[in-house]
Amino acid sequence: MHFPFNHAHLCALLLIVSACSRPPNLQKGESASDAQSGQAFPDQVTLSGSLSKELQEIYKHPRLDPCDSSQREIKKLLVTALEENEEKVNDYPSTSSEESSAAGKPVTQAKLVEFQGSYLIHLPKIHSDSAGWSTDLQGWGILHDFFKQNADNPTPQFWRIINENVRSLLLEDKTRVINETNRGIDHANVLHLPRIHSEVESCFQNPGCEAPNFDSALSLAVKSIPLYRFFDQALRSRSSLDSKREILEPFLKRIKRDYSEHSFRKNPLLRVEKSEKGTILNLAMDPGLLGQAEKEIIGSIIESVWSNEKTQVKLEWGSKRQTPDLFEILFHPNSPGARPNVKPYEKVMNLFPGNRTRSVAHEFGHVLGFSDHYYTVWDPDRCLYIYETNDLDLMSNSASGDVTPEEWQTLLNLEEIPAS
């Protein structure tokens, strides 16, 4: 895949870093001081306010891709159509519904779980035959085609599909354009991040080092990540040591941020109890305004997914007033279809009407300290986002995945991992 960057793009990237340091698929900031330290782990990007205002904010940003310019009108059309039909998003039967594909064909039965006057959606776990990584595409052009094909005679699920995908694409655009998240990291090259980070940092710490000493495997990984490739090319095109060091510093800051975003961050409040019968992992959260029934629902979801024959996560309830580092659960009844998310710096888990119950278990994985194990790659040639998911991993595909042996082992080794 070709990612067309030029000298102007590279200059813009250097300034930014140094100054601040699926077809429709139904599911699927750092401060200046953080960036300067190179240790930032930005909270998940979320939408706040009206979707139209979110779209306007994205287009105020100076670093727009040519795709953003060419697709501006269809984005505006879809956002406007959704806002004009907002009341239809919540037009659901009272007890159950059929989840549908983008073509409107039912794929499985969904049970609506009453939750604080609204609902969550419980779907049986999907059993996948896939043993590896799968690729899916999502883009404004694909969604627009779906909209045109179905708008005149929409199925009952049509507006919810439009709602989820418009929100998802706006989040992706905001993450890419405003938050400057690296959308060149995939499931293959992410495995090399620790060594890339180590080599670049080692070079930066050596005042006489002109460029990192990448072996053949690391060189291939660097070339596969557009941002890294152009930093590396810039390093090797400069002649003097001082000019190379000017490139090396923002290169390291970029890698530090990416490495942090894709690393496990231990929740310091997680308590491990080991016995002959197995291991219990205790973690307290603040229920916020949840009632007893909602607390039981959340506890059942989390404890049923985060358990195996030898290990069990136990969810406890506490108060941030007494323990400020507790994560708090916030339910937002007026934003149906919004993507659930966790904000580590704010210590909150945000849930919304229509969220899948297994998505709640996925978000709890972030509370424990895991990063997302799915990868979103931006393809500017086709104006598409490429999603890479592992159907067997809960932190990659919550609909079909389980807690993997590697994730269990990470939790069992917690005593060896320093708190973030």
Describe this protein's structure.
This protein is of the alpha/beta class. The chain has 14 helices and 12 strands. The protein folds into 2 domains: 1-21 and 29-40 and 186-261, no CATH class; 46-184 and 267-420, no CATH class. The strands form 3 sheets. Strands 5, 6, 7, 8, 9 and 10 form a 6-stranded mixed beta sheet that branches. β1 and β2 form a beta hairpin. The longest helix is centred in the middle third of the chain and has 21 residues, at 241-261. The two termini are 35 Å apart.
Overall SS class: alpha/beta
Count of DSSP strands: 12
Described by the principal axes of the CA atoms, the overall outline is globular
What's the total helix number?
14
Order of helices and strands: HHHHHEEEEHHHHHHEEHEEEEHEEH
Estimated radius of gyration: 22 Å
Report strand %. 15-25%
Mean pLDDT: 84
State the helicity in percent bands: 25-40%
Task: Specify the biggest β-sheet.
Answer: 6 strands, mixed
* Distance N to C terminus: 35 Å
As for the number of domains, it is: 2
Which spans of ≥5 residues are poorly predicted at pLDDT below 50?
1-41, 94-108
